[in-house]
Amino acid sequence: MYRISFVFAKKGAMKYISHLDLMRLLTRAMRRADLPMKITEGFNPHPKLSIKRALKLGVESENEEGAIALKERISPQEFIDRLSKQLPEGIEIKDAKRDID
């Protein structure tokens, strides 16, 4: 399992999206980007995606932190490029780095 930590911005009209909707948005964008996400086992499988803090509704941010577990190793730049193409205006991936196992 490989883990990528990323920093993203949430601004403009996207400041009105709730935390749960943001999680759903990121998950769907990662699926469309065909990223090799690690999926949990059990009755309700979902990607191993986490966002460090939940922002209040209506608050913009330039430096939100998140992390995703992947099944295969990809470069942080490839992660940014593939995911950025699938995200709506107002959500921007600013940086990514591979976490040390």
Description:
The structure is a single chain. It is built from 2 helices and 4 strands. The chain is globular, with a radius of gyration of 13 Å. The mean pLDDT is 94. The protein has one domain (2-98): 2-Layer Sandwich (Alpha-Beta Plaits), CATH 3.30.70.580. By secondary structure, it is α+β, with helices and mostly antiparallel strands.
What is the gist of this entry?
By secondary structure, the protein is of the alpha+beta class.
List key phrases describing it.
101 residues, alpha+beta, Alpha-Beta Plaits, 2 helices, globular
Beginning-to-end CA distance, first to last residue:
8 Å
User: At the fourth CATH level, what is the homologous superfamily?
Assistant: Pseudouridine synthase I, catalytic domain, N-terminal subdomain
Largest sheet: 4 strands, antiparallel
Helical stretch tally: 2
- Class computed from helices, strands and strand pairing: alpha+beta
| CATH architecture descriptor | 2-Layer Sandwich
Q: Biggest sheet: strands side by side, in what order?
A: 2-3-1-4
What is the total domain count? 1
Strand content: 25-35%
> What is the average of the pLDDT values?
94
CATH fold description: Alpha-Beta Plaits
Question: Which range best describes the helical content: under 10%, 10-25%, 25-40%, 40-55%, 55-70% or over 70%?
Answer: 10-25%
Number of strands: 4
| Main CATH class | Alpha Beta
Global Rg? 13 Å
- The low-confidence runs, each spanning 5 or more residues with pLDDT under 50, are none
Query: So what's the overall shape?
Result: globular
